Amino acid sequence: MVAEARGDFSQIPILDVSGLYTGDPADARAVAETLRGYLETVGFLYVSGHRVPRADVEAVRSMSRSFFALPDEQKLQLKIDKNFRGYLPFNGSTIVTSSVAKVSKPNQSESIFFMHEVAADDPDALAGKPLQGPNQWPSEAELPGFNATIERYVAEMSALARELVGAISVSLGLPPESMDRYFEKPTTFLRLLHYPTQPEEAGLFGSAPHTDYGYITLLAQDDVGGLEVKNKAGEWIPAPPIPDTFVMNVGDILARWSNDLFVSTPHRVINRSGRERYSQPFFFDPSMDEVIEALPPCVPAGAEPKYEPVLYRDYLMERIDKNYHYRKGAAAAPQAT
Q: Which sequence ranges are marked TM in the entry (predicted)?
């Protein structure tokens, strides 16, 4: 272990999750037990031994570079909409809800969001429910193969996330399928991010200190670096890129769900590398209509849960409404990594 107590760490641990794929419950249980320790103490880890092909990770990164290289007028044709899908220009968000730091300057990045696909004639979309609508895509003529590359990656990342949901359940002494019902229609975000090199300036960040909103985040980084994670001593610990891994972290809703057994750890991005940085965080969250309340194994006998039950839609939108400039009090999404 790289940590013996909550928040006491000096590096980010690596977990080989190949045991989740062998079909042997003992192998899966061993992964789950180690995972629990990391989620309780660090809230961050590198996931290796997964089944997402390197070629597919790199294909998304290549498509991301190509998209952000388009002229601004083309990108702005896909400007982010009320359903939180599309292009967010530079200086488009300020993390005013951060519990980690007082943030007054916009994040130094541009990004494009793809959420779970919802057809325009879907009942939820027709009813005007929050964040329910189709994604916005660049044309095939502009970026051939873009849509198929993204959709394949989202499917692969969703499959990996579901394996990790099962492992988290097992880590708590629950059957592996016990949380599946909360993710029948998962709320997912793939955010492609481009960070320019930023100047030395007080209070200026690629992504200001924050915790993520949701269940788990799975991040593919390029080789530039810049992600840092805060330990309980207040030190910012680098999370440098490691080939063929994803950085996984606990989001606030999983911390709440676990009655704070698992820790949602603050992190930030500072890109002073002299190079452009590209990252692709994937956020896997419960269905919007699910009520989240403390899991029984996480509440000590005779104790009350720390948090009242909450509808995930209400929880997410309340945080979302404040951080993104275009919303003006209407909505937002997970933070950047």
A: none
Task: Return the HEC string of the chain.
Answer: CCECCCCCECCCCEEECHHHHCCCHHHHHHHHHHHHHHHHHCCEEEEECCCCCHHHHHHHHHHHHHHHCCCHHHHHHHECCCCCCEEECCCCECCCCCCCCCCCCCCCCEEEEEECCCCCCCHHHHCCCCCCCCCCCCCCCCCCCHHHHHHHHHHHHHHHHHHHHHHHHHHCCCCCCCCHHHHCCCEEEEEEEEECCCCCCCCCCCEEEECCCCCEEEEEECCCCCEEEECCCCCEEECCCCCCCEEEEECHHHHHHCCCCCCCCCEEECCCCCCCEEEEEEEEECCCCCEECCCHHHCCCCCCCCCCCEEHHHHHHHHHHHHECCCCCCCCCCCCC
In a domain, 7, yes or no: no
Tell me, yes or no, whether 160 lies in a domain.
yes
Domain membership of residue 336 (yes or no) is: no
Q: Is residue 328 domain-resident?
A: no
pLDDT number for residue 329: 42
Residues of the chain below pLDDT 70: 1-4, 91-106, 199-204, 322-337
Could you tell me the pTM of the whole model?
A: 0.91
Q: What is the CATH number of the domain that holds 107?
A: 2.60.120.330
Instruction: Give the chain's domain count.
Output: 1
